[in-house]
Amino acid sequence: MQALQIHGAQDLRLSEIEPKPLAPDEVRIAVKSGGICGSDLSYYFKGRVGDFALQEPLVLGHEVAGEIAEVGDAIQGLALGDAVAINPARPCLACPDCLGGRSNLCRNMIFYGSAARMPHAQGAFSDFVIARADQCLPIPENMGFPIAAMAEPLAVALHAVRRAGDVMGRRVMIAGAGPIGLLVALAAKQAGATDIGIFDLAEPPLEKAREIGVDAIYRVGGVDNPLARFEANKGVFDVAFEATGALPALASLLRITRPGGRIVQIGMLPPGDVTLAANLLMAQEIDYLGSFRFHEEYQMAVDFLASGKIDVRPLITGTYGLNDADSAFEAAADRDQHIKVQLRFER
Ligand SMILES: [Zn+2]
Ligand SMILES: [Zn+2]
Questions:
Q1: What is the value of pTM for the model shown?
Q2: Of the bound ligands, which one is closest to the alpha carbon of residue 98?
Q3: What percent of the chain has pLDDT over 70?
Q4: How far does residue 300's CA lie from ligand 2's centre (Å)?
Q5: Which of 74, 96, 101, 310 could potentially form a cystine with 24 if both were Cys, beta carbons 3.0 to 4.6 Å apart?
Q6: pLDDT at 51
Q7: Cα–ligand 2 centroid distance for 110 (angstroms)
């Protein structure tokens, strides 16, 4: 079968790879749609994501949906031809974190398309991918694979909003109008946040934010800082989400989050030790929380997409065939033109 394999920075190959045999508790899925994520882009352009560098060829991709093409002997409740959104997380379900309901923190996690462990967890940008039954969420017929492939990044956003606690009626600021920042805006709105702002260095993603109903947009990085007025009286926002991974964005959030407020870190900050104004956390009792991937929010994401309560269609801005993968990755990195770029798998 064909798979999109990254061999090093800027070295993406459509390779012929050997399909693996199926275990009794697994299914084989013909992949139909796959979204390109920030981590895929980082492997593509830098050969690494944060602290994790490529040590062997890696099939990219973890935002996928497809159709069941083969079922293991022990599988119940899934049949050939079923359309499914595929949860790329395969936690062990046996460690203390899994048993404690936080399987996103599983010490034995296998997550598609990640170089976090060796051998690397191969990804899902391939003709077929193998999954356990619990990774497969059936989708309604009219939903479509491109929408289903958005369940993964939406789950990341839903998890982040959940980490923030009750956002009902709260004033929210989001750093970064990329796919995750925009999905956080949609998720926060769905959860009842009434006043949502977002800031970014670039204008086009901010226009998209306006289009999807974000209340206020702020372009930062110019001579005037539009966020400066929120610094008065030690900050005004109840909840802030950091979805850029850039330290200046976090620094801004620390200054504009109100005393007793909460900041959720979603973006991956630069590797190694970083410097931040930590005394603001202390003196203003700001809760600073990490948010990593998701657990049952994946099912919630599929439900929100199936019911139409969260509409992600405006975020899918480009679709490319597998043979055009380099163009797809270049497009996905072009913030002036694109939010979420997806690959279409056709056989
Ligand atoms: Zn992703
Ligand atoms: Zn586990």
A1: 0.97
A2: 2
A3: 100
A4: 21
A5: 74
A6: 83
A7: 10
